[in-house]
Amino acid sequence: MHSTVELALIRQNLRKSSLHREFQTKSKNELSPVNNDRVINMVACLELEHIPSQTFIVLLGTHLKSKQPFAKDRSEQTNVICQFINEHYSKHSHILLLGDFNGEPIEPFYNQILSTGLLSAYNTLLDHEPEFTTFKFRPGYNENDEKESCHTIDYIFYNPQGFHPLSYLSIPSKTEIGVNGLPSYEYPSDHLALATKFLII
């Protein structure tokens, strides 16, 4: 039986199952070489049942450490998330992993996620990631100077053995957003919304 679910409207078609996990894990006694502090990993895991198809869906949301120098921290955080997925779910589970990963696709965390068998929904549908998911201006070195910050750091990953992406929410151009970047009146967040419609298989 096939059924579709729109990620942006997921609460309309899903109900909570009896198991709702939220956990925080430390990487095994490893110290961050950047801030000399233990790496804290946070991910929310919500297990849901899709009512029409009676499909068990695992929704994982995360927000990895920000700033470009902390790529190793993001890699360590991702390693814990991938380990959790591998230990608790089979290769056939209906898994969605999404959030603000705070890193570009060239960083190690991206391939670490792909190594679990998950794929990026936007990359599948577009054959590449969006040009950017955040576009803003940060203060420069001089008082009246601003520096453009435009990056792809948000993703929707899915298990292709459980889902097939059908369509996606398009990303506006810089012209559509406006010269002041994000947030704006039309797009009231410093990150753009991502949404994918999936076929449950």
UniProtKB/TrEMBL annotation:
Gene3D superfamilies registered for this protein in UniProt: Endonuclease/exonuclease/phosphatase (3.60.10.10)
Residue ranges occupied by any Endonuclease/exonuclease/phosphatase domain in the UniProt entry:
81-191
Task: Name a single GO biological process.
Answer: nucleobase-containing compound metabolic process
Does the entry feature the keyword Amino-acid biosynthesis, yes or no?
A: no
Q: Which Pfam families match?
A: Exo_endo_phos
Tell me which domain of life the UniProt entry assigns to the organism this sequence originates from: Eukaryota
Q: Which InterPro entries does its entry note?
A: CCR4/nocturin_mRNA_transcr, Endo/exonu/phosph_ase_sf, Endo/exonuclease/phosphatase
Recorded GO molecular functions are: 3'-5'-RNA exonuclease activity
The family assignment reads:
Belongs to the CCR4/nocturin family.
**What is the designated name of this protein?**
Nocturnin
